[in-house]
Design goal:
Blueprint: E1 2-4, H1 6-13, H2 21-32, E2 36-39, H3 40-51, H4 61-69, E3 74-77, H5 81-87, H6 98-110, E4 113-115, H7 119-123, E5 129-130
Parallel strand pairs: 1-2, 1-4, 2-3, 4-5
Helix pairs in contact: 5-6
């Protein structure tokens, strides 16, 4: 079971070479098993990046996200109260960014591996990461 960090989701959907080879293999395998997840906060983060001009997509952001939502092997995990609370209780978490906290809490709530290039998150001992 895999949760994609926002950048990993964008790179995987766009078939970018930025996604590491080991991560790509694991994500593809999780997709085949229908065990691939993205936190809903990542949709917010993508929309914010597009709005700020820090991310350019080939489609309108609503259409881009809708296409991801239509993938039968990808599940979006809504922000639940439990995930929200867990995101502020991560012991020694190295980021103040709420989106990063929610993504990590989502992976922990599912018992999933988090695919991320973020070195601070990868070094966080409470979540299993892959790149």
């Amino acid at each position: 079971m895999i949760v994609l960090d926002t950048h990993a989701w964008v790179w995987w959907v766009s078939s970018s070479e930025m996604l590491g080879a080991a991560a790509r293999r694991a994500v593809d395998e999780a997709a085949r098993a229908h065990e691939l997840f993205v936190s809903t906060i990542s949709a917010w983060e993508v929309a914010m990046l597009v709005e700020k001009g820090r991310l350019s997509l080939t489609l309108d952001v609503r259409d881009w996200i809708a296409r991801s939502e239509a993938l039968p092997f990808l599940t979006f995990v809504p922000l639940s109260n439990a995930i929200a609370v867990e995101s502020v209780r991560l012991p020694g978490f190295p980021h103040a960014d709420p989106a990063d906290r929610i993504i990590v809490a989502t992976a922990l709530s599912l018992g999933a591996i988090l695919v991320t290039k973020d070195e601070k998150i990868s070094a966080y001992p409470h979540v299993k990461c892959l790149w």
